[in-house]
């Protein structure tokens, strides 16, 4: 059996090794083809592995790294001053082909800056983007990008995002020609700002993906499209609004069920159903955003991820490594972009 | 008793007079100080008023208008070709001071273009914005603007939005110095695009409102701020994402409660609580976005508004007319902007 090796930033995230180590042990138990290299303070990690009843083996190794990137550290400081951070060393392992992917719950800005600096973008891609998966009412899933890597996008970036998203969905969901939409504030041609209009024009004239037109944000979760592209500022606002509304609704449900003895009883009876809803909506299930467009697979876990959620991010990285997603994207992007003048020469 | 007169575009929205007429009769029954001028096809409106068991009086009048603006009509066509539309005539009544406010469920783009053309902006205000109210987990409400009037905002526009939002909240909620935040994708100073950074700088240096810094979209509904300003593209995405998530969760709850006989029973028992949650989250409760920054009060109802929701929009207009909001805003904006070089000369 061919082993898939993933480098894991064991010090990143709000909880560091207390989440990363048990999640790693869990993923190793689930996937016999998985090998993990935990990157971080060696003696601390040894202690934590023992504490969580694990043991080093040829499938669980430690790579020492003497530094940590703080969650509020600026990307520039992390890049310049933390050359032996667990984050940087994890990415280095991917660059050196000692790992097929890496996973970090560390600070997004620093991770993106470091990944971009160390790995570089794929030929034909100007900027990496952050892509993640969301549930829809049909049970199908939708991918949205960019979720925050670029805050001043051009139509060319968005075209490249469309191609990358389309290739990713095509490879992971077995959809030959995924539907691609541009996030806008109306569906008529005249709606929106210059960026979305120029992007729509570009997607139409190049015919490079199955472009199905504009989508409004209230239709993001209707299952009517497979890939949604937008500027990173807008995508990040949509992503975080989703979290904000989910919290508001959860909170309101809690308050109303706690109102009196009758509503509490009703809540007790409805609890299994509410838990099922919670499971479906649980962001942990969708944890693991991918930095797409780099010469290497980098999966970003939510900083506050639980053990289950971090294990989910490891699954995502394992799956992408298994499916050789990065190479597929690289091949197809190159091939697709050959026919257009879009994208930089490399 | 001084009567407050509101012009009502009776032909606008997905349902036209079938929603507007009963909602108007309901509002008149609730508020003895309200006078409504229904604008639209006179004979049709007479018929509808009879149908809903109402009668013309000195508090319920009809102003004939021979045209209607279609829901998908372009703002330019509506502006040029529909000079006797129910929408245009309603706004004219405000301009001519025959009404203190107007309400329309018609097409947003056409309503904004017409309102701007007929009423003009207040002195010191470059662009009107769309502002609306949202629930939060604390029970307090938050106002967000711009929700879609301007898709290429400048820091100066956002500063003006901040001032207008602050004045509106101060007058309606009796908060002397409302907290104002700028929507961003992080709370650190280095985060965001040029627009938000320049806006933040401007709000800090002018000290014109109680500026409390950046807010991320997952904190919009936490009750930690009173006014949130953003570009109209971003605000519209946040608004519609809210709707999209609410639909997704509602749909998931329905599906899970319908899974089998036991979950259906649980649903039946939990129904009163779920209905209470639905009422709290119901967008109808918050129906009635205001076009702020114009020389006149224009309230925009959701196109698909129910009778209750349209009545809510009428309440909003009545309240703003009663509180003389537009004049207060005008006064304060003028006074506040006198001390800065921001805003155009008028």
Q: What is the number of strand segments of chain A?
A: 11
Largest interface summary: A-B, 62 and 60 residues
Rg measurement of chain A, Å = 21 Å
Q: From the helix content, strand content and strand pairing of chain A, which structural class follows?
A: alpha/beta
Walk me through this protein's architecture.
The structure is a homodimer of 346-residue chains. The first copy, chain A, is α/β, with parallel strands linked by helices and 346 residues long. In chain A, helix 7 links the parallel strand 7 and strand 8. In chain A, helix 4 packs parallel to helix 5, helix 6 packs across helix 7 and helix 6 packs across helix 11. The longest helix of chain A is centred in the C-terminal third of the chain and has 26 residues. Chain A is globular.
Brief overview, please?
Helix content of chain A is 47%, strand content 16%. Chain A is an alpha/beta fold and 346 residues long.
Topology:
The structure is a homodimer of 346-residue chains.
Chain A lengths: L3 E6 L7 H14 L3 E7 L1 H10 L8 E5 L10 H7 L4 H10 L5 E4 L3 H12 L9 E7 L5 E5 L9 H19 L5 E5 L10 H13 L3 E6 L11 E3 L2 H26 L3 H21 L7 E4 L4 E4 L6 H16 L2 H14 L8
Parallel strand pairs in A: 1-2, 1-4, 2-3, 4-11, 6-9, 7-8, 7-9
Antiparallel strand pairs in A: 5-6, 5-10, 10-11
Helix pairs in contact in A: 1-2, 1-10, 3-5, 4-5, 6-7, 6-11
